[in-house]
Specification:
The protein is about 40% helix and about 20% strand. The chain has helices spanning about 10-25, 65, 110-120, 150-160, 180-195, 220-225, 245, 255-260, 265-295, 300-350, 350-355, and strands at about 30-40, 45-50, 55-60, 75-90, 95-105, 140-145, 165-170, 200-205, 230-235, 250, 360-365, 385, 390-395. A hairpin with a 4-residue loop joins strand 2 (about 45-50) and strand 3. It is elongated, with a radius of gyration of 57 Å.
Amino acid sequence: MFNQTEKIYQVSDITYLIKEILESSFMALTIEGELSNFRPSSTGHWYFTLKDDDAMIQGVMFKRKSAGVKFLPKDGQRVKVKGTLAVYAKRGSYQIICNSMENSGEGDILAMLERRKQKLASLGLFDLDKKKALPLFPSKVAVISSPTGAALRDILQVLDRRSSGLDIVILPCPVQGEGAGEKIAEQIKRANTFNLGEVIITGRGGGALEDLLPFSEESVVRAIAESNIPVISAVGHEIDTVLSDLAADFRAPTPSAAAELVSSSREDLIRKVTNLQSSILNSLLDKIEKIHILLNQFTADNLERNFMQILQPILLRLDDAKETSIFILKNILKDNKHRIELLKAEIEGNSPLSILQKGFAVVTDKKTGKLIKSAKKLKADQLIDIRFEKDKILAQVKEDI
């Protein structure tokens, strides 16, 4: 029985009292913690959780405040926020309404993952040259995921829609929580041991950073890197990144995208084959048309015309060369003729005959034929020839001079 004097509160009454006490007592406070489950909304508001090793608190930052933050928050970051406490009466929960946010350094999880990433990378587990190609049309696919998770449902729906004849082997395992990593690694090894698929899809849906940690366990990374069967890592959403993504042969942004990679829609195949057929046919027709055009060029008229097109410039150049040669030769002959005429005139001008034409005569010794240039050289009774222009006479010297 209730005490008649005992005060009874309605839920809204007690919630209002808590709200009044908390909001009036913590009107301006600064909290430092690690971001988790960061969810930016399409409206620009940010929703997230701040946590440490022992507790967590919900946080929200509205668009007009988040626009002033100079970095994009992500799970695992340690941040410092300033704001006020607010009680959400309908849910009976409280949260901090943030006015500002500063990066306070990496969170412990991110720091641990970075150290593990560097270690595994140094062992060559992420080397690109070790990646295996995915089969083009696999007939059997092994799926390693939670049997009750949305990721498996999405994969099965896509495979059923796009390739209903595909053989699917489901290897169930937990995808979060303690021991999940070891289970995932065991199923990857089992798929290889019993050859349960031509390709392996391992993954889960989105979640907070700590929820995805099993897919960054060293055992999982090693199992993927050592797998003889190509592995597709499909963990979370496109913005989520785990170490299994780096070790896998291919990283799919979502589980549905992974299913699309290993399946081929009948409609897609028919369309691709039809397009390929059309492309080949058009290519052949183009080549045949080009061949016809080339063959048409080899008629007698075309050959003659083409030959003349080749010969014509040669003939023109030959004619030009002939005309040039004739012109040069004529000039040479003209110049030589002129020179000959000059020489002839000079020779004739210096010829004795030309002198004789002027009335002079040439006197030579009859006996010796030597030219007599002076009368003093003549002697009595000496016979001499006197040559005129057209004739000559024989004379005898009467007496010495």
